[in-house]
Fold:
Amino acid sequence: MSASSVAELIRGAGSVVALTGAGISVPSGIPDFRTPGTGLWEKVDPMEVAHINVFRRDPERFWHFYGQRFQTLEDKEPNGAHRALARLQDAGIVGAVITQNIDRLHAKAGSRDLVEVHGSIAHSSCQTCRAGYPLDDVRDRQSADPDGIPRCDCGQPLKPDVVLFGEYLPVAALTRAEHLAASADLMLCIGSSLEVYPVASLPQMTLDTGGQLAIITQGPTPYDGRAAARCGGDVEAEMGEIVASLGLL
Ligand code: ZN
Structure:
């Protein structure tokens, strides 16, 4: 019932936007760091290390951790849910994809018009002269540096273009996300617990402007009671069924 009812909502909607969170990347082997006892986050408290203050005061410690984080993300591939969403975009059904994920997997799956509200590991930049460097270059610079700190040509430590704890979200991306949410007939919320603000407020904007929500997420969300459709199964299977229900296999 659930995947076909999402397909039904999609058919009836003029504009569809997607909002994705950590859950869509779990089948790719990227654990949600808010789930206790998973992977890299087991050994360190990310809220302590992946913090802007640590980057500023102790870039060596920050990069010791973040370099490992890059390593765990680098070899990961998009899964069926990422591909299904890219397929919906190809078919002109879904417009933009707003994501909290920094893992580049939507881009790898071929999604366009990505609004990465927490940034991406795809590039790092210098906080002093603003020069930007792609991931491969950052990795090379990190291995070459005696302290393991990737440095700009000007000598300053590079900072990954992701939102660290203690930092504000990028204003341009957030403004775009809010505009998309407020103008959507339908928001597909995929793999997000919809609990992390301010991104968690986007579904409310869609509802407030008369749009509907379809939630494709394992586990409860604060919006479950107000969703027009709710899929709680495996995210790859559910997304595959939605695409199939629309005849897009
Ligand atoms: Zn610089």
Observations:
- The CA atoms of residues 17 and 38 lie 30 Å apart.
